[in-house]
Prior knowledge:
Blueprint: E1 13-14, E2 19-22, H1 28-36, H2 39-43, H3 59-75, E3 79-84, E4 90-98, E5 106-112, H4 120-134, E6 140-142
Parallel strand pairs: 5-6
Antiparallel strand pairs: 1-2, 2-3, 3-4, 4-5
Helix pairs in contact: 1-3
Amino acid sequence: MFVPADFVVPLRLETPQFRLEPLGPEHNDADYGAWSSSMEHIHATAGWEESSWPRDMTLEENRADLQRHADDFANRSGFTYTVLEPGGDVVGCVYIYPAPAGTHDARVLSWVRASRTELDAPLWQAVSDWLAAKWPFENVDYAPRNVSRQTT
C-alpha cells in the first residue's frame, strides 16, 4: 500500500504563485500545450534527464495518459497534480508515486513549462515543504533544485 488507508490525500496546495489540484482529462488541452511546447526544457529539468517522457503524442493519447493518472489518484496508487497559475493556466505537473525498491518511500518529479522556468525552484520548495508537513512519507526521492530561502 502506497499510503495508509486512513490517510486523507490533500486535494490542493496553494501559494501566491501557483496552485496544485489533481490532474485529470479536463486539463487535456492546457496540459498538452504546456508540455508539448517545453519538451527539451522538461528533459533538462532535474529528475527528468533519463525519462522516456515527454515524447511526441497526440491530444487523444495525452487524454488517455491523464485518465490513467486520474485513475491512479482514485486508486491511491499514485498522485499527479497539475500546476496552475492564479489565472488558471497550466504551467506544470507534480507526480508522487512509489519509489523503486530501495531507501525511499516515494519518488516525486515536477516540471514547469519553458516559459515559466522561474517557477521551478519555488515549486520544488513548496512541494518539498508540503510533503514534509502533510504526507506520510519518511524519505522522499525528489531531485533538488538550487533554492535560496528569502529571509525577511
